[in-house]
């Protein structure tokens, strides 16, 4: 829902990569080339105020130099108010490319998102498109997004992995 903007901002600001659901198709065993892929995992708790039901991307898997459309279906259980934040960490291996806190409501305003604060309880589908720069290095990006309410209580948590592999790489 509102986390789309901070996630895409982090992905683009650092490499950077974005987002989730089912790993992309893999090339047959024995082929020295590995396909690009991505995945997501809910690292939050059942009691969190925001539940992400699904994240899809198009194209699947994401392609460097192409427009990426991200669709997030989420359920909001309690009102999200001004002051809610998202801590975003983007890593390649052990190297931190980006570690930043985003104001969720402000990012939604900047993106002209269809949802704005306060966000009332209910089901939301948010679609956002971004251009992935051609300069994005072909690496494996690990992204952790932890959202917090205006009172700093856990709100949502998502771990994302985006793998852009060079055609000659045969290891993870």
From TrEMBL:
Q: What SMART domains is this protein classified in?
A: ML
NAD recorded as keyword: no
Q: Report the domain of life of the source organism.
A: Eukaryota
Per the UniProt record, the source organism is: Mycena belliarum
What range does the record give for the signal peptide? 1-21
Role noted for this protein: Catalyzes the intermembrane transfer of phosphatidylglycerol and phosphatidylinositol.
Question: What protein name applies here?
Answer: Phosphatidylglycerol/phosphatidylinositol transfer protein
Instruction: Kindly state which keywords UniProt assigns to this record, in alphabetical order.
Output: Lipid transport, Signal, Transport
């Amino acid at each position: 829902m509102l986390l789309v903007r901070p996630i895409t901002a982090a992905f683009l600001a650092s490499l950077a990569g974005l987002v989730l659901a089912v790993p992309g198709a893999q090339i047959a065993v024995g082929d020295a080339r590995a396909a690009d892929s991505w995945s997501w995992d809910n690292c939050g708790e059942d009691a969190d105020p925001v539940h992400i039901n699904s994240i899809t991307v198009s194209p699947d898997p994401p392609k460097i130099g192409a427009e990426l459309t991200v669709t997030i279906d989420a359920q909001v259980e309690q009102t999200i108010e001004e002051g809610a934040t998202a801590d975003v960490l983007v890593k390649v291996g052990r190297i931190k490319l980006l570690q930043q806190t985003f104001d969720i409501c402000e990012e939604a305003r900047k993106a002209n998102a269809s949802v704005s604060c306060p966000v009332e309880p209910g089901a939301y589908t948010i679609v956002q498109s971004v251009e992935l720069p051609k300069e994005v290095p072909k690496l494996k990006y690990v992204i952790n997004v932890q959202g917090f309410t205006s009172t700093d209580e856990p709100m949502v948590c998502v771990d994302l992995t985006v793998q852009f592999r060079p055609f000659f790489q045969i290891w993870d």
